[in-house]
Write a structure and sequence with these properties.
By secondary structure, the chain is of the alpha/beta class. The protein has two domains: 291 residues, Divalent-metal-dependent TIM barrel enzymes (TIM Barrel), CATH 3.20.20; 32 residues, no CATH class. It is 44% helix and 16% strand.
């Protein structure tokens, strides 16, 4: 049986909007937690700092009330008021210091509430045009900032979430290789990846391969589950709804590499409610996991290792879904 636990990013239970319209209304933390509590199989929630932590004692009480663990503190480093021209890589020292302070505060909160994980998706560290950024200097600042954050305390792991686009044309931390580059340059064990599956599709990666690379360097710390169409957009769709076979391969790979952390979820609900969307996402992951159990990890591994056995593998997998193709 898989050893991971399932979580939900509560930001997606609140106001959801794009540049055209708003899909979900704003909801306070208590209402969002109550909605998530109605989803069977969720063991934890991910909360955003600073937005969700105005009263830390209240946060602790609400988590206890609903029986949730805090899976991670998601620190906002894309606030345009502070980080319009970058956060971790910003040329402006004041912006970088603000990012470092905020991330360190998030680490302290995570430790205080028993999470042990802080994650950020540094989308402000990005650009749109040629000649807009001095890449050498920006990456030097980026790595120095990450080092300053993770040196703050060794008992909390710092997760970097890569994404190739949005809201800018190019994001510096755009793929798994760049996350591994930062980890290698910083050289400390508590910096790694929040691996967003949809972002991996958007980057043109095989998520199973990317996860295997991260795990091989002990940098696979956390996962955001979702799916998208893979042409670069970040649609946060229900896991397996587009890339069913890739998702099966990812879950199989996570089991093979011994991943025991959280699988969180970022799902945007546009035409239905977030409770329904996250319930479907949770059940998809659980059912895909059961399908893999039925297929047998050892059987799959033998077929993968055997050259030319791909047709046999798909025949075997499909027989676990539909036992008789003639019926």
């Amino acid at each position: 049986m898989p050893r991971w636990k399932l979580s939900a990013n509560l930001a997606f239970f609140g106001a959801q909007k794009n540049r055209f319209t708003q899909y979900q209304p704003a909801r306070d933390l208590e209402e969002r937690l109550g909605m998530a509590a109605g989803i069977d199989g969720l063991a934890g929630v991910e909360l955003k700092y600073p937005a969700d932590f105005a009263d830390v004692d209240e946060v602790r009480g609400l988590l206890d009330k609903h029986g949730f663990e805090l899976s991670a503190v998601n620190v906002d480093t894309k606030d345009a008021e502070l980080f319009r021209h970058g956060a971790l890589s910003a040329a402006d020292e004041g912006a970088r210091e603000a990012a470092i302070d905020r991330l360190r505060e998030g680490m302290d909160l995570a430790a205080h509430l028993g999470a042990g994980l802080v994650t950020t998706c540094p989308l402000a560290d990005a650009y749109d045009y040629p000649f807009q950024v001095d890449y050498t200097a920006a990456w030097e600042r980026y790595i120095a900032t990450v080092r300053a954050v993770v040196e703050h305390r060794s008992d909390v792991r710092f997760c970097l979430e890569f994404q190739p686009h949005e809201p800018h044309a190019k994001v510096l931390l755009s793929n798994v290789g760049r996350v591994l580059h930062i980890c290698a340059e910083v050289g400390l064990p508590n910096v790694g990846a929040n691996f967003d599956v949809g972002h991996s599709f958007a980057a043109g990666e095989s998520p199973a391969e990317a996860a295997a690379l991260l795990a091989s360097k002990d940098r696979l710390f956390y996962i955001h589950s979702n799916d998208n169409t893979g042409e670069g957009g970040d649609w946060d769709m229900i896991s397996g709804s587009v890339h069913f076979w890739h998702w099966l391969e990812l879950l199989y790979t996570l089991e093979r590499v011994g991943y025991e952390g959280w699988i969180g979820a970022d799902i945007t609900a546009k035409h239905f409610g977030p409770t329904e969307a996250f319930r479907a996402n949770t059940n998809m992951i659980r059912r895909m996991s059961r399908l893999l159990e039925r297929a047998g990890a050892a059987t799959i591994a033998e077929m993968v290792a055997r050259e030319g056995a791909t047709p046999d593998l798909y025949e075997h997998m499909m027989s676990c879904i539909v036992p008789d193709a003639d019926e």
